[in-house]
Structures are given as C-alpha cells and as structure tokens.
C-alpha cells in the first residue's frame, strides 16, 4: 500500500494501517471516474475495431451491464439514477454504432446514405 495514504502501527504480531475517511472516499471516487472513463473509451475503441453486427450488439450489452454494475457498486446512486445513467451510456454506444461512425476511418464517408 502507498505510504502516503496510510499510517502504519505495529501491535503484537500484526500490522494495522489507519487512514482517514476522506482519503478512502477520494480513492473510491478516483477509481469510479477512471473505471467509468475506461468503460466509455474502451467500448468505443472496441466497437470501432469490430465489423460484425451481432458481435457489436453483444459487446454493447456486455459493456452496458458492466457499466451498470460499476455505477451501482461504486456510487450511492439510487436505482432510478443508475437506470438513467445506464440508459444514457447505452444510447451513446448505439448512436456510435448506428451512425456508421465506427467505419468512417475505413474509407467510408461516415454517412449511411448511398451516393447519388
């Protein structure tokens, strides 16, 4: 464990570490932010690399479930807030996939309309 977060004391056979509640809250908040950003960036990069529609659909489902679990466990959000955040996250992923943004770098025009 990082020494700057904990104050170590030795008592008897074991070592006990003490830390303040604010440091624990900060560490959990930082972990939550990093995990949430990782879910969004990781999902977009993964969806960009995969071209098969059924695989993309499964990936959206998996990332959405993982996001909901992380928000539910790492925050004090109520059920309705977790649902709203998860719905917004899933909507971002679906718009990314359906907007053909994932294939824009592969020579596509980035639109789904055929050329006239």
Poorly predicted sequence stretches spanning 5 or more consecutive residues:
none
Instruction: Provide the structure class.
Output: mainly alpha
Strand order of the largest sheet: 1-2
Count the beta strands.
2
Shape call: elongated
C-alpha Rg (nearest Å): 21 Å
Strand content: 5-15%
Q: End-to-end distance, in Å?
A: 62 Å
- Share of residues in helices: 55-70%
Largest sheet: 2 strands, antiparallel
3D structure, described in words:
There is one protein chain. The protein has 3 helices and 2 strands, in the order ββααα. A hairpin with a 2-residue loop joins strand 1 (7-11) and strand 2 (14-18). The protein has a two-stranded antiparallel ribbon with strand order 1-2. With 116 residues, it is mainly alpha-helical. Helices cover 61% and strands 9% of the residues. The chain has helices at 21-49, 53-74, 79-98; strands spanning 7-11, 14-18. The longest helix is centred in the N-terminal third of the chain and has 29 residues, at 21-49. Helix 1 runs parallel beside helix 3 (79-98) and helix 2 runs antiparallel to helix 3 (79-98).
Record the SSE blueprint.
Blueprint: E1 7-11, E2 14-18, H1 21-49, H2 53-74, H3 79-98
Antiparallel strand pairs: 1-2
In short:
This protein is mostly helical. The protein is built from 3 helices and 2 strands, in the order ββααα.
Please describe the structure with a list of short key phrases separated by commas or semicolons.
single chain, 116 residues, mainly alpha
């Amino acid at each position: 464990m990082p020494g700057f977060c904990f104050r170590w004391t030795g008592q008897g056979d074991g070592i006990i570490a003490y830390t303040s509640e604010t440091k624990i809250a900060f560490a959990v908040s930082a972990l939550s932010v990093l995990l949430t950003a990782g879910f969004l960036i990781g999902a977009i990069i993964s969806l960009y690399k995969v071209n098969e529609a059924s695989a993309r659909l499964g990936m959206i489902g998996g990332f959405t479930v993982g996001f909901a679990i992380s928000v539910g466990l790492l925050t004090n959000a109520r059920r309705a807030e977790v649902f709203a955040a998860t719905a917004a996250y899933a909507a971002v992923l679906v718009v990314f996939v359906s907007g053909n943004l994932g294939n824009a770098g592969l020579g596509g025009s980035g639109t789904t309309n055929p050329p006239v």
